[in-house]
Backbone:
C-alpha cells in the first residue's frame, strides 16, 4: 500500500517540479530571486507530497478489508446408531480411536527409558550421575 502511494505521489511531484521550473522565470519580473523562490516552493511542494502520502496510506489502511477464509461446515449429521454405539462402547468411536484400540501400546526399552528421565536440573539421570553439582558427591 505504502509503495503504491509513494510511487504515485512522487510521479506527481516530479511533474509539478517541472511546471515550477518552467514558470519560475516570471518571478524575476517581480524583483524576487528565482533560485531562492524555486527552493522555497520546491520544499513546500515536497512537504505537501509527504503529507499526502501519509494521508493516503492511512486512508487505505482504514479501508482495507482482511478476508479470512471461512471454515467448512459439517454437512453430514451423526446418525443415532453411531451415537448409540459410542455410548455403548463407553468412549470415542471414530476411525482413529478404532485404529488405536487394535494396536498394542509401545513402551521404551529399559535402557532408553532410563536415559530419557530428566532430573530437576534438566539433566538425564546418566548425566546427573556423571556430572554432579558442585559440593555434591556422585552417588
Residues:
Amino acid at each position: 500500500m505504502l509503495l503504491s502511494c509513494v510511487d504515485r505521489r512522487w510521479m506527481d511531484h516530479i511533474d509539478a517540479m517541472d511546471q515550477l521550473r518552467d514558470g519560475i522565470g516570471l518571478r524575476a519580473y517581480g524583483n524576487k530571486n528565482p533560485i531562492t523562490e524555486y527552493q522555497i516552493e520546491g520544499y513546500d511542494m515536497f512537504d505537501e507530497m509527504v503529507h499526502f502520502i501519509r494521508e493516503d496510506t492511512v486512508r487505505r489502511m482504514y479501508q482495507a478489508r482482511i478476508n479470512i477464509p471461512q471454515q467448512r461446515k459439517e454437512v453430514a449429521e451423526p446418525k443415532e446408531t453411531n451415537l448409540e454405539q459410542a455410548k455403548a462402547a463407553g468412549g470415542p468411536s471414530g476411525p482413529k480411536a478404532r485404529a488405536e484400540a487394535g494396536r498394542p501400546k509401545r513402551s521404551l526399552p529399559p535402557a532408553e527409558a532410563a536415559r530419557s528421565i530428566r532430573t530437576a536440573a534438566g539433566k538425564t539421570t546418566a548425566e546427573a550421575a556423571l556430572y554432579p553439582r558442585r559440593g555434591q558427591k556422585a552417588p
The chain has six helices and no strands. Residues 23 and 29 are 12 Å apart (CA to CA).
